[in-house]
Each structure stands twice: as C-alpha cells, then as structure tokens.
TrEMBL record, chain A:
<protein>
    <recommendedName>
        <fullName>pre-crRNA processing endonuclease</fullName>
        <ecNumber>3.1.-.-</ecNumber>
    </recommendedName>
</protein>
<dbReference type="GO" id="GO:0003723">
    <property type="term" value="F:RNA binding"/>
</dbReference>
<keyword id="KW-0694">RNA-binding</keyword>
<keyword id="KW-0378">Hydrolase</keyword>
<dbReference type="GO" id="GO:0051607">
    <property type="term" value="P:defense response to virus"/>
</dbReference>
<keyword id="KW-0051">Antiviral defense</keyword>
<keyword id="KW-0255">Endonuclease</keyword>
<dbReference type="GO" id="GO:0016787">
    <property type="term" value="F:hydrolase activity"/>
</dbReference>
<dbReference type="InterPro" id="IPR010155">
    <property type="entry name" value="CRISPR-assoc_prot_Cas5d"/>
</dbReference>
Automatic annotation (TrEMBL), chain B:
<dbReference type="Pfam" id="PF09709">
    <property type="entry name" value="Cas_Csd1"/>
</dbReference>
<dbReference type="InterPro" id="IPR010144">
    <property type="entry name" value="CRISPR-assoc_prot_Csd1-typ"/>
</dbReference>
<protein>
    <submittedName>
        <fullName>Type I-C CRISPR-associated protein Cas8c/Csd1</fullName>
    </submittedName>
</protein>
Length: 218, 580
C-alpha cells in the first residue's frame, strides 16, 4: 500500500479551455465536469517526474463555475507511428465535435512516494520534494502542462492560501463514475482503465487512494 | 452521468424489462403443416395497414454483416429472397444462401436439441426450396419489399413458433451462453460487474446521421482507442447498460404523428435536443409543449397563458437535456445539461418574458419560427450551432449568442421579402433582439432596461431615435399613401448605424409630408415634437454600436406598434359608436 506521508503540495492549474475526455465519449469528445485525477497527475508530472517516484492526487478543488463550450475540429484517424513519413493528414481525417470546459481553475493537492525497487541508493523523497518546489516556483517544466488535451495549455503555480472553491458550502454532489487512471503495472495483463465513484463535496473532489480503487468496489 | 441517467430512465419506464425480446410489428405469419409443407401466408395487418405488434426474440445488430434473427426475421433471411434477384451481382447468390444458412442454423440446432415438433416443421420447411418459393408466390412479386417481418405458425396453432415455451427456453439459454463468452468488467454506467458490450446498439432518427442508425459510443478508428484497447474495452459498458441507454434515446427520438421526435426539439437542420426528467411523463410533455409547441398546443395556449408553469410538487426532481447531432456513422453530443425541473420551468418562463414584446399574447413561439425569422433568406448565415446555443442558454438562464443580434439586425436592414408575414416577422426579430439585449453580459453597472411596450420615459438616445424613425415613416405613409419604397426600405440600415447621415434629411422631408397629410399630419407632427424633445438639440450621433442598433430597432418597433394599437382602439370605438 502506498503511504501518503510525504509532503503535500498545493498546485493551482488554470486555463481558458480544458477537455477531460470521458472514455465513452472520446470519438466525439465530451469532457467530465471536473478535472480527473489522471489529468492532475499529468500536470504534476509535466513539472517533475522521475522513474523512482509516483504521484498521488488527494484532492482537486474547483475554483471556477463549470462552464461549457463546444466546437468542431478536423482530426486525424490514425495514431502517430514511429518511422512512418509518408503520412498525409488531409487524406485521413475526420471532423469531430468537442464539448469542452471554459475558464477552468483548480487547486490540486498531491504528494508522491518513492517506488521501492526503482529508487537508487542516492534518491530520497526530501530531495525530490525540494526539486519539485523549486521547479514549480520558477515555472520550469519538462513539457508544457496541459488540461486534458495537449492543445489546452495550463498556467501552473503554487496555490496561495485562502482560495475558496466555487461551490463551497453547497454540500455533496455526485459526479458519477469517473476515470481514475490506467492500470499499467500488472505484469502480463493488458492495460485497463479503472473508475471510481466521484463526488464534489463543497466544491472539492476527494480522490480515493490508488489501493482502494484497484482493490475493486469502492 | 448522461448514460447513467439514460439507463435509469429506461429502467424506470420499463423499456428494458425484457432484454432478450422486443416488440415489433410482425407483418406476416407463414403457416406450415406439421410435415413442413407451406399452407398459407397470413397477413396480420390491422385497419391501419400495419402489422400486429408482437414480442419477438430481439433481432441482432446488422449493417453489412450477416446476422439472423431467431425464428423470426425478414424474407431475406427466412426465404433467401433478394429483391433484384435476376440482376444480382456475382456475390448476390452467395449472400442469399449465407443469410438463409444463418437463419437455418439455430432452427436446426433447436430442432435437434428439443425434438420439438414445431421446430422440426419449420426446419423441414426451410430446407425445401420449393416450399419457400410457394411463399414468395403467395404475393405479387412487386409487393415484396424485403423488409417485411415474418414469423411462423405450425398446423392449427394460434401462437407463433417463437413463443412456444420450449423454444423460448432455448432462446434464453442460448443468449445466456453467448453472453458468458464475453469479457466481464465493472460497468462504468452502472458500477456493477457485467459482460462488456464490444459494440453498442444504434440510435435511429438522429438528424444528419446515417438512416440505418448511428452509434453514440463507438471506437471505429485507431485514433479513438487508447493503449491497444479495442472496441468496447476502451470504455467498459455492460451489455444491459448499452441496451438501456440506446432504448431510452430511441424511445425519445421516435417519430410520432404530431412530432418528428416524440420527446425532442429540432434545432436548426442538424441537431435535436431531447430531454427527460425523473419526474413524470406528464411533466415532460408539459415542458415539451412549451419549448416546442405544435399548432394544436398553440391554440390551447391562447386560452390559458403560461398556465402549468406554476411551481409544482415535482419541481425538485432531476431534469436532463442532451443535444445530439449525427456525424455520418457516429452521433455527437453537442450539449449536455443537468438541472431540476423547477429551475427549468423558471428559466423557460423567463425566456418567454424576455421574448414578449408589444401587445401580443404571452404564449410560446416555436423555436424554429424564431430562428427562421432571423435567418437570411438563403438559409445561410447562422452558424449551425446557434440554435443549440440559444436553447441551451434559455434552459440555463444564460445570455444568448451575440450572433443572434447581428443576424436579426441584418434582416431588419433588408426590405421585407413578403408583405404578408411582415408584421409577424418584424415582431419575432425585434423580440429576439430584445431578449438578447436583456441577457447580454454587461461589464457596466446598470442592466439594460428594455420594456415590453412603448416606454415614453426612456430617454436613451438610440431608443428615441428608433421611435423618431417610426414617426417619420408614419408621416410619409400618411402623406403619400401608396409607395413602392418607403423610408424604411431605403434608410433603416443607415439610420440605425449612422444616424447623422440620414436623420437631418429625413426631418426636412417630413416637413413636406406633414403639410400634405392633413389632420393626421398635425397630430403626427405633435408626436414628432414630443419625441424630439427627448433628444439633445440638433445633435445626431455619428455611429451606433451593435447594442445601440438593437435598442434602435426596439424603439422603432414600440412606436410603430403604438400607432397600430391606437388605430385599432380608435376603430373599435367607432364601430361601437355606430352599433349603439
């Protein structure tokens, strides 16, 4: 079981457009109402990722009201393939609709743990924590952090204190089953998507720990 | 959430009670003797000419593949019938045989398994080409379409073979076995373990989609799937849930005699908004008749305006709306909205209040009529999702797309195309302008005030200029009677955009008009004076912005309607006097 004793970071991520695509609606994209844990993980990994660490998302606070927008784009039908150079996007595309979110603003609370076996003798959590903090404050990243889709760039910074969720005080609101993450690391088994029952409690999405989601019914 | 809500709806309304069977109109019974000889072809058509609705084993999903029904299907499968048989291409014969084989296979297996005499009779009938020919000969060749639904009866029986208990048991067991072959996973709609549906049933009657049906959840290109997952594994949804949401949507999208969609509103050409509630079917039909009234509804509404939108006991129940549009083989979601019934009623009421203008009775206007009124005559100009956005905004109580303002103003600048509908069209356009103005998000402090009818105290310059324009038009009308082109046809656009270039000239002209117009002219001159008094002396603005042009149009309309009303009341007073 992953321990969550590491330092908790609060990271604010916002942007004009976001699309956290629902897996059942991904041909003609429709977003979830709220950022998914895996999208939040992606934002943090954009800033710091090492083979030896694993990020855990604890909470996602929703600061801005949920607003929608929709547009159509030409997208390709094929996946990027290494070594193929004769690809003509014009001949292989589909017009697809996207129902995305507008003007999103989140505070992600997260921590990471060291993975036993992957961490070398010179690695320790403290070192990576400081590294992350430094990078976050300076605005450094490995690749541009984004909100669900690469093209929707995120502005990421440390969250100051006193930020209030938009729906603070409004109680518990069910969001239905939400995508948690892919399970990559079961040896021999194919990658599979995992879901969890999501609620917005006073404007905050509480993310259950990984072990609880993978353990079956939550 | 959407699929879950739809699946719940299907369960609550009992649409999924019988996942193995479906009710379909069976057009003909093929009666065969116990030995499998053809006896007769019996039409089940009632007075309306349609087949009798019967419960049959659910037909499989078909596109170009071959998949046969169980003891009931169309003549292509049952009789190896092909409409253009003589002209059939090389592959035609093979396909015919393959279809018949597919239909025959389960029949044969069931006959062996159960030793049921009825199943055996059907089997021996199907194996004989001569007997099958007799069926086709029982009707005129031209009458067969290939899509009739056929079922079997044996001997003197009154119930069809597929309803025979032994055969039903077989169907249920076979379906169970087939399901057991599937992969199980936690369903992301219900949250329960279930057999994952690899492909989903299709939605029918979605605009712009293939007429044979299109899927809402599909992964038909490599770019749509992730991590090497194929088809339904990308989003594990159980077969029950997949059937549930599709049945729910198909039920709402069904065509009825009055409506194109039983529980949907057509938005523009390309999309449909369907909505449902966790309240009651009567709540749903009430809301529907408000948002998209039929002619019959409209007549009823004149008697009881806005009645029924009062708060009710079910206002706290959930309300869902989804806008769907076809994209060839796929169905796309354009908009998704979740709320409470009471909230929606409040927003609909506000929508009608915002649209109310002049003395017209407070009743609903069908959305397509509103949009027709602002659409350019060519039918182009409005971007395809304007209707979706407008209705979405109406249900949510948000502001309308600004594009409506532009389009409506554009239409006002053009001379009317057809005089007969002119007054109504003008009303709709100005109503839309008014509603859009009222809802515009404003950075300033004061909300824009736009009244329902003439507001003599409104000194806002564009509004007053609009009124002045109406007075001048009236003066011209009173002086010159029959005209080919009025000042409205010539100058409305310029007057609303660049008042300074037009008004001084129009005012000069009006002096001549007034002298020609006699008694009426003196009265109009007085009104002109009243209106002019609200303007700063001799100063017309150079340019009016979009919102101000909207206000101009509203002012024009208000003043114009005020003239009409005055004349009408005066006329009725006269007739009263005459009758007494």
């Amino acid at each position: 079981m992953a321990s969550t004793t590491g330092r908790r970071f609060r990271v604010r991520a916002r942007g004009p457009v976001a699309c956290f695509t629902r897996p059942e609606m991904k041909a003609e994209r429709v977003s979830y109402e709220v950022m998914t844990p895996s999208a939040a993980r992606g934002v943090l990994e954009a800033i710091l990722w090492k083979p030896a660490i694993r990020w855990h998302i604890h909470e996602i606070a929703v600061l801005a009201p949920v607003k929608w927008t929709s547009f159509r784009r030409n997208e390709v039908n094929s996946r990027a393939t290494v070594g193929r150079f004769d690809y003509a996007a014009d001949e292989d595309r589909a017009q697809r609709n996207t129902v995305a979110l507008r003007d999103v603003d989140y505070v992600i609370t997260a921590s990471f743990t060291l993975l036993p076996g992957k961490a070398g003798p010179e690695d320790n959590a403290r070192k990576f924590e400081d590294m992350f903090e430094r990078r976050l404050e300076r605005g450094q990243f490995f690749h541009a952090p984004y909100l669900g889709c690469r093209e929707f760039a995120a502005r990421v910074e440390p969250a100051e204190d006193g930020l209030l969720p938009h729906e603070a005080g409004s109680g518990r609101r069910p969001l239905g089953l939400m995508f948690y993450d892919f399970v990559f690391d079961v040896p021999g088994a194919p990658v599979r998507p995992e879901f969890f029952q999501a609620f917005l409690e006073d404007g905050v999405l509480h993310v259950p720990p990984r072990a609880q989601v993978l353990g079956g019914d939550s | 959430m959407m699929l879950t809500a739809l699946n719940d709806f299907a369960r609550e309304r009992g649409l999924t009670d019988d996942p193995l069977y479906e009710t379909k109109p069976v057009d003909f019974f093929i009666r065969v003797s116990a030995a499998g000889k053809f006896v007769s072809l019996e039409s089940t058509a009632g007075e309306d000419g349609r087949g009798k609705p019967l419960s049959i084993p659910r037909l499989p999903q078909r596109s170009v593949n071959i998949a046969a029904g169980f003891f009931a299907d169309n003549p292509k499968y049952v009789l190896a019938y092909e409409k253009d048989a003589p002209k059939a291409k090389a592959g035609g014969v093979e396909k015919r045989v393959a279809r018949l084989d597919a239909f025959l296979k389960p029949v044969r297996e069931v006959a062996v398994e159960t030793k049921d005499p009825e199943a055996r009779a059907v089997e021996s009938f199907l194996t004989s080409e001569a007997e099958r020919r007799k069926v086709l000969a029982a009707r005129d060749e031209d009458e067969w379409t290939g899509s009739e639904l056929l079922a079997f009866v044996v001997g003197d029986a009154t119930t069809p073979v597929h309803q025979n208990p032994a055969i039903r048991a077989c169907w249920e067991r076979r379906s169970g076995e087939k399901r057991a072959l599937g992969r199980t996973a936690r369903c992301l709609v219900t949250g329960l373990e279930g057999v994952v549906a690899l492909t989903h049933p299709k939605l029918k009657n979605v605009p712009e989609a293939q007429s044979s049906g299109a899927s809402l959840v599909s992964f038909n290109a490599p770019a749509f799937s992730s991590h090497g997952l194929e088809q339904g594994d990308n989003a594990p949804i159980s077969q029950e849930a997949a059937l549930g949401y599709v049945l729910a949507l198909n039920d709402m999208l069904r065509r009825t005699e009055q409506r194109r969609f039983r529980q949907g509103i057509q938005l523009g050409d390309g999309s449909v908004l369907v909505f449902w509630t966790r309240a009651s079917p009567s709540e749903e039909s009430l809301l529907l008749s408000w948002m998209d009234p039929t002619e019959e509804d409209l007549q009823r509404f004149t008697e009881s305006p806005l009645h029924g939108l009062q708060p009710g006991a079910l206002d706290d129940r959930a309300f869902y709306a989804v806008t769907l549009t076809g994209n060839a083989g796929r169905v796309a979601v354009r908009d998704w909205f979740e709320s409470r019934v009471g909230e929606v009623k409040r927003n609909i009421r506000r929508y009608f209040d915002d649209l109310r203008i002049g003395n017209a009775p407070a009743g609903p206007t069908p959305i397509y009529r509103l949009l027709n009124a602002v659409e350019a005559p060519s039918g182009r100009g409005l971007s395809p999702d304007v209707a979706t956005r407008m209705v979405g905004a109406a249900l949510r109580g948000l502001h309308f797309p600004r594009q409506l303002l532009t389009s409506a103003l554009d239409r006002l600048r053009l001379p009317p195309a057809d005089d007969r509908f002119e007054r109504e069209q003008l009303r709709l356009r100005v109503a839309l302008i008014k509603a859009t103005l009222l809802r515009l998000p404003r950075s300033g402090t004061t909300p824009l005030e736009v009244t329902v009818s003439l507001d003599k105290n409104n000194a806002s310059q564009p509004y007053v200029l609009g009124r002045l324009f109406a007075v001048l038009e009236r003066l011209q009308g009173a002086a010159l009677k029959d005209l080919n082109a009025t000042i409205r046809d010539r100058y409305f656009g310029a007057a609303s955009r660049n008042p300074v270039t037009v008004f001084p000239r129009l005012l000069q002209l009006s002096v001549h008009h007034a002298s020609k117009a006699g008694e009426n002219g003196r009265w109009l001159e007085r009104t002109k004076g009243e209106v002019m008094a609200l303007l700063p002396p001799e100063r017309f603005p150079r340019v009016l912005g979009l919102e101000d042009q909207g206000l101009f149009a509203v002012g024009y309309y208000h003043q114009r309607e005020a003239f009409f009303t005055k004349r009408e009341t005066a006329a009725s007073a006269e007739s009263d006097a005459a009758s007494s």
